[in-house]
Amino acid sequence: MVRNGTRVWPGSPYPLGATWDGRGGNFALFSAHAERVDLCIFDRGGHREIDRITLPEYTDQVWHGYLPDVLPGTLYGYRVYGPYDPGKGHRFNPYKLLLDPYAKALYGSLKWSDAHFGYRVGSARADLSFDRRDNAGGMPKCMLIDPAFSWGDDRRPATAMEDTILYELHVRGFTMGRADLPVPLRGTFSALAMPQIVEHLRELGVTSVELLPVHAFLDDRPLVQRGLVNYWGYNSIGFFAPEPRYLSARGVDEFKTMVSRLHYAGIEVILDVVYNHTAEGNHLGPTLCFRGIDNLSYYRLVAGDERHYEDFTGCGNALNLHHPRVVQMVMDSLRYWVEEMHIDGFRFDLATTLARELKTFDTHAGFLDTIRQDPCLARVKLIAEPWDLGPDGYQVGHFPPAWLEWNDRFRDTVRRFWRGDGGLIGEMAARLSGSADLFNHDGRRPWASVNFVTAHDGFTLEDLVSYTAKRNEANGEVNNDGAAENYSWNGGVEGETDDAAVLALRQQQKRNLLTSVLIARGTPMLLAGDELGNSQGGNNNAYCQDNPIGWVDWTPERIAARGLVDFVKFLTSLRRRYPALRRARFLTGQPVVDGTPDVVWLTPQGVEKTEEDWRFPDARCLAFLLNGNANRTAPKQEKSPPHLLFLLNAHFDEMAFVIPAGYAARWELVLDTTAKDGRGERRELTPGQACNLPPKSMALLLSLVAQPSEPTT
């Protein structure tokens, strides 16, 4: 068959999307309610439509056709015909060029105008009106790609859960401030693959980078009108295509090269993914993709009022994961990134939304059950942000086995403890122990708890110890955005200061917070730039700041004055070196192979705590012993690993901790957060001797039984 001079064959309804087979391209688009689908082909610049082909076949709700004469690099989009009846959930408008939900690459960027809306903006009838303006000139275009790539001997690091150390970073923000990178590469996947960046990550000791959204996303129109952008990228419009602004060249091979180089260094790549909503917003949003292809199928609409959308995210809509084709799209996307792009795991934004059945969260929601049985996804890490903004949205600890979950209880408790809040020693003990009260069920392990004190959303570590109040004026929302309570403490002076005593205290507090993360049971997560002393000037919601506010500060002077690179290296080496810090079992307080409990909670007097001790309301100190033999299965080994004794003093006064008797004859101080390098003067102490801890400090002592073996790499 020939249409408009272009040969068109029936093609196949599978796979969905545009697929190059070495001879031509198959195009397949799901729409259960469309009446016709036109494939639009554009010139190499994406400016002019050079051909329009009506897809000739419709099979199992999939429109499809095969073009034997197209080549990789072809730019395309769709126009979909059907009823425009918002009251019944239909919003078809063939005047709007639409993106392919399965597009593997996008070319160009969105240029906002009223033409992108399916209704006449400003009309008294609002979205019940109909707009006939063509929006193609302002739309990015989909690209047919050749997926071939030479992976060589690429191997997944497959880091064990208990050995994992996450490092959350923004692809663009992490490298924009590196003066030693070529300017054209800064902010791209290529920059993240540069040797000096990879070496920094490797030397830090992190095992997995968790990238903020890299799926294609859009800048919200209100932000663009304020001269800002959706910097973080939680505004997805395509679940298969890498975001074009992170590509230095035209093609997806750049992303694959980045993954390959990080894998070669032993570093996993985990993606932060947003399947809970799309960039099309609420009923007054634009028509760019899903809404114009099959609104009734792709989105959760209000029952009995299909003009409006269910919204559990605060972003205007929610993908309809009750529909089999929508679940298929998300699963196809996940498998694509694992199989084709070699990704090692995913962090699911507002994951509670994905597991809502009718209205409420369900641990056996169709989406969760579908993931659980998928053999491809069984070999990657799955991390939930276990909350959303809908009713009963807070679900920390309730995700199924094999999932990890962000633990904000850990974050808030550790922040409050080191700020000096009283009555938290029981809560602090629970968080450092792996949060068994939340995760010890259904065979789950301590690594289910992702422990962090900072993340992209909130203060950086530097700002956490420098500001008591947020400073978000640059966001243009009169400082009303972002969390009002951050459990932060500025050390006595708000913001930047030259006071040497205050600066020293802030550095000490940062060492306390970092140590708490990296010695706790669970999966530690660090925020990129915290080790460098990075500040956002008190902005705790830099989602729209694609500028030095949101970028990591690599200034050598700043790093020298505020950075903790060597200290983080030291902490990660301790975690690797001593298995007691990574043990994949919850602490029980019961004796192990040597007759000593796996954990002993101590008073400052060096004796085991009683129930009354736990209830002391003004307590701001904590001491505990981790049994180094807890990992052993037999009473005799050539080398007996040391016990670890932790002393934490969050008081504003010095505290004396008595070294306990009955566990070791001698102890050596190996970590002291009052010291600039975190190590301090190595000295030995004996049972009954006092170890005086200055205010706001922490220490680790090792029993001198035998030197632990070096970790294998």
Strand-helix topology:
Layout lengths: L1 E2 L2 E2 L9 E4 L4 E6 L5 E7 L6 E6 L2 E3 L2 E6 L7 E7 L2 E2 L4 E2 L14 E2 L33 E3 L22 E4 L1 H5 L13 H4 L2 H10 L3 E4 L9 H5 L27 H12 L3 E6 L16 H9 L2 E2 L2 E5 L14 H16 L5 E4 L2 H4 L11 H7 L8 E4 L18 E4 L1 H12 L5 H8 L3 H4 L9 E3 L9 H4 L35 H20 L3 E5 L28 H7 L2 H13 L21 E4 L8 H4 L6 E6 L17 E6 L5 E4 L8 E6 L11 E2 L4 E4 L3 E7 L10
Parallel strand pairs: 14-15, 14-23, 15-16, 16-19, 19-20, 20-21, 21-22, 22-23
Antiparallel strand pairs: 1-2, 3-4, 4-8, 5-6, 5-9, 7-8, 9-13, 10-11, 12-13, 17-18, 24-25, 25-26, 26-31, 27-30, 28-29, 28-31
Structural summary, described in words:
This protein has 713 residues and is an alpha/beta fold. The protein has three domains: 2-143, Sandwich (Immunoglobulin-like); 163-277 and 327-415 and 451-577, Alpha-Beta Barrel (TIM Barrel); 584-703, Sandwich (Immunoglobulin-like), CATH 2.60.40. Helix content is 20%, strand content 19%. It is built from 17 helices and 31 strands. An eight-stranded parallel beta barrel has the order 14-15-16-19-20-21-22-23. A six-stranded antiparallel beta sheet has the order 24-25-26-31-28-29, covered by helices on one side. Helix 10 (408-419) packs across helix 11 (425-432).
